[in-house]
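Help wanted!
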Amino acid sequence: MNWAYIANHADAFVTAGLLVIRIGLIGIVGSILIGQIIAIFRYFKIPVLTQISSIYIEISRNTPLLIQLFFLYFGLPKVGIKLESGTCAIVGLIFLGASYMAESFRSGYNQIEVSQIEAGRALGMSELSIFAKVTLPQSWQYSFASLGANMIFLIKETSVFSIIALADLTFVAKDLIGMHYNTNEALFMLVISYLIILIPLAVIITIVDSCLKKRAK
Amino acid sequence: MDLIQILAQGNTFFRLMTGFSVTLYISLLTALFSVIIGLALGFVMNSKNTVLKIFSKVYLEFFRLLPQLVLLFVFYYGITSALGWDLDAQTSAIIVFTFWASAEMGDLIRSAIQNVSKEQIEAGKAVGLSKFAVARHIIIPNVIRTVIPQTVNLLTRIIKTSAIVPLIGVMDITKVGQAVIDLNRFKYPDGAFWIYLFIFVLYFVACYFLSLLSRLFEKKLMN
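Answered by r_m:
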């Protein structure tokens, strides 16, 4: 292992790592927002929107991100929709992530005891206020673990963005291998970069999850 | 429609399907190996031996945390050349995916074993069943019931993961599709839209079929 080489090229990995974190964070926040909205559509069984959401969820969950990105980036411009690669990455990540988040939220809502909802009805609360004051605030403790797993999944999926011409971590690693043949160093940096991003995220998710569960008790 | 005209040219359709069969071949072999290794791993994860437990936990977390593409790069560009192995990209993909998917499978088995109700096992012991009979008549049927739908789900995840193999140069459907698009660049300038849509639909059909199958198993086995 050539440590001087690693030190010289660390900045390229830092830049790429920041790009991955930025796109990953926008993707995660966007997926949670849209996922929450979709979960609410399905919870209230709003006609038309529920059916559209269900079709979207099946399409999103049953196709790989790589193919979604190819279609967005190379296919859509042919019918007049041109997306720049950064936008494409974010749109792709949210398209993939929102369906997973929606399913996590839904399973959280389903964990709430029926007796609590019935109690709300008995008190004359509207369905909307039961959802806002009983179901939603409590569902977080049940859905958070699965939301967290989805966050890690989305960050992992950022590794394919090099195919739409984004200089992400795998792109930098492959580029360095091609230029200097320092394969071991480049791959070592690639693994370390992802571990630096993913381990703290995994630890934070575990801590928040146990706090939420403790507070609920 | 452009798509039909492109597909009807020469053996384009056949070539695309051959590309897709590469994906399915990689996925099915991976699934087969992972089920076997995962079964063993699941029992190891549940064992009382602390060293084995820690080792399997580290294995699981490592292969789960890193992106599959990173694992693929490390193996294909790094480990094979460091060890002087001459492996092709397709075999490398199967090996790497097996490492990852057996970790996932092992975790499914582990949680399925842990979730077998204690009352049933106690009841089995109370009526005088041997340790072996408890495993044979109580633990294994319960585990199979929960694990089969999840295994089918894991297979869809493996298929979706296999979509990354063109990044190390495997001639799968995406690579063939790119070649078809390039070949038709002038005759059908919109080819990229149709070919990628076709590939998208093909993946969807394969994975959606398995999702439905998994739900069917879940319903059938839960009753």
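OP: Thanks! One thing I noticed: Residues 26 and 90 of chain A are 7 Å apart (CA to CA).
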